[in-house]
Amino acid sequence: MEGGKWKQRITIYSFVLCLVGFTAALVILPKQAISQAERRRLAKWPELTYETVRDESFMNDFESYLLDHFPFRDGFRRIKAEFTYKVLRQRENNGIYVAEGHAVKLEELNVPGVQKTTDKMNAVRERYFPEQKAYYAVIPDKNYFLAARNGYPAPDYGEMLGILRENMSEEGFAYIDVISSLSIDDYYTTDTHWRQEKIWDTVTVIADSLGVGTDIGTADRFAQNEIQDFYGVYYGQAALALTPDTIVYLTDDVTDSATAWNLETNRTQPVYELGKLTDEKSVDKYDIFLGGAAALQIINSPKAATDRRLIIFRDSYASSLTPLLLGAYSEITLIDLRYISSERIGEYVNFEDADILFLYSIAVINNGSMLK
User: Fold this and answer.
1) Which domain does 321 fall in, by range?
2) Which of 57, 72, 87 represents a domain boundary (last residue)?
3) Residue 243 has pLDDT above 80, yes or no
4) Residue 272 needs a FRET pair 20 to 30 A away by CA distance; which of 13, 29, 115, 345 works?
5) E strands within 5-133?
């Protein structure tokens, strides 16, 4: 009987010790504003007022704060992920699977979403350049290369391309096949994006289709610059001990002389914004490419071989591709309809006599409702 009481006491004391220890760690350990692993801002200590207590927002925000700053949180997330994969033998964690060294997000075809994307593309063309032909290209995600041969579901790209062709007239749009120019080696292992130093074949396909293939120059003119320890978007979501990537960005006298005006900040910046590497507000090293996501940017390239203009309706993949086209275009305008209404772009963009390209990854094509 006495032994049973001691077991109960040990259990209680251990629980209290753990509770006190974790509470002390929560108070004492330094608080981070950003989770580099998850690439997001962490919750701040909530404001305690009569109103926040009355409407219960304080307790909700306080719960978020505790979850975000729980001691050794990343370690516990990794233990859970390892348990999920290796003990429970589940094939994905948080919608992420790992195959052939790549972390990949599960994706399925969203037919209504694709149709909404084509509706938006048609509406934009009809409003701003009804007499001009536009080009469009589809950037595949890593599922295209890895899913089938590793036993995972993947979007049906044939069906998706069929919807695009069916809903957009041949007179108004021309398809550029960049899919066949890519392989899984052209993508970061921990991230969704392609590697700039690997996509020259894709750049060439696009440039040839737009009629500037002889103006972009050759790949060997670029210098390669490295940024170590790039933890991509899937690194934190997978919560596994994956090897970080290295970002390689390409520079020459053309990219060095080019400048990009950003509508949101109303300032001019370099093509590669290296200040993002030391900016505490930045959560993604990929943002060195044109400074990251932006509603509208106009890039001037004074050393371009021509005075032609290009307008790209884009997502984040275009950030690393665009600098490689600056040898052929004196001006490239980037429009991201996720962040600016299509009704406003006419205030800033002149479409007359410009080449026009819709360059979207499946993440956007599959979810056309995000386009404004």
Assistant:
1) 98-370
2) 72
3) yes
4) 345
5) 34-35, 40-41, 96-99, 102-105
- Looking at the structure, tell me whether residues 132 and 270 fall in a common domain: yes
- In sequence order, the 6+-apart residues with CB closer than 8 A to the CB of 267 are 261
Neighbour tally for 256: CB within 10 Å: 12
Dist CA 181 CA 199 (whole Å): 8
> Is 21 in contact with 270 (CB distance < 8 Å)?
no
Centre a 10 Å sphere on the Cβ of residue 167 and count the other Cβ atoms it contains: 15
Are residue 138 and residue 203 in the same domain, yes or no?
yes
Token pair in block for residue 97: 């699977």
- Residue 36 shares a structural domain with residue 116: no
**Tens digits of per-residue pLDDT, 156-208?**
999 999 999 988 888 889 999 999 999 999 999 999 999 999 999 999 999 99
Q: How far apart are CA 81 and CA 236, in angstroms?
A: 11
In tens, the pLDDT along 72-102 reads 455 545 555 555 555 444 566 778 888 898 9
Q: With respect to residue 81, please indicate whether it lies within any of the assigned structural domains.
A: no
Q: What would the pLDDT profile of 7-51 be if each residue is shown by its tens digit?
A: 565 556 555 554 454 455 444 545 555 555 555 566 565 665 666
At 96 the pLDDT is: 85
As beta bridge partners, residue 176 has 137
- The answer to whether 244 touches 218, Cβ cutoff 8 Å, is no
Are 290 and 198 part of one and the same domain? yes
The CB density around residue 331, as the number of other CB atoms within 10 Å, is: 18
CA-to-CA separations, 347 to 108, 213, 269, 296, 351, in angstroms, rounded: 36, 31, 21, 11, 11
What is the reported pLDDT for 171?
82
Whether 32 and 135 share a structural domain: no
